[in-house]
Amino acid sequence: MNRTTRRVFEQAAVALNAAFEQAGPFPGQEATPPLLADEIRKCLDICQQVDAAEDAAENPPPPEEVDELGTHALECLSDLGLWAWQLKLDDVRATIENIALDMAHVDRAARRPDRCAGTCC
User: Fold this and answer.
1) Beta carbons of 81 and 97 less than 8 angstroms apart
2) What pTM was estimated for this model as a whole?
3) Highest mean pLDDT of the ranges 2-6, 108-112, 114-118
4) 111: which residues sit within 8 A by CB, 6+ positions away?
5) Neighbours of 43 (CB within 10 A)
6) How does pLDDT run across 84-109, given as a tens digit for each residue?
7) CA 87, CA 30: separation in Å to the nearest integer?
8) What is the CB neighbour count within 10 angstroms for residue 16?
9) CB of 13 within 8 A of CB of 33?
10) What angle do CA 56, 49, 112 make, to 5 degrees?
11) End-to-end CA distance of the chain, in Å?
């Protein structure tokens, strides 16, 4: 994920977190927008480390681990999109869906046999 996309994600996360806080408490919810956004940030940071390791010809993690990471990030983005829908933030929902589509496209391209399997973002 490039800097522009990450900046767009951060803007969407800030708007979603503010709407979540303003909407009031949601007792019993484990996957809240702030926690989901933090999980996505962790995934993105790991993806950058993986890409840097590949660029430096170091030992990147096995493709299975990268695949799990991409799947986790997409699941978190999906959950964030649901929160945006519940909070009636259509623009934020559309932004999150676009980011998920971009990430899924990169993830799918990374699985092609002629491409490096470690590129996840």
Assistant:
1) yes
2) 0.81
3) 2-6
4) 67, 117
5) 22
6) 999 999 999 999 999 999 888 765 54
7) 17
8) 25
9) yes
10) 80
11) 4
- pLDDT tens-digit profile of 4-34? 889 999 999 999 999 999 998 888 898 999 9
Helix, strand, coil % (nearest 5) of the chain?
75, 0, 25
**How many CA atoms, within 13 angstroms, populate the side-chain half-sphere of residue 42?**
10
Sequence letter at residue 63: P
Amino acid (one-letter) located at 104: A
Give the type of residue at 118. Answer: G
How far does CA 8 lie from the centroid of its chain?
A: 12
- 3-class state of residue 1 by DSSP: coil
Coil, helix or strand at residue 23: helix
> Helix, strand, or coil here: 49?
helix
Whose tokens are 């993830």? That residue is 107
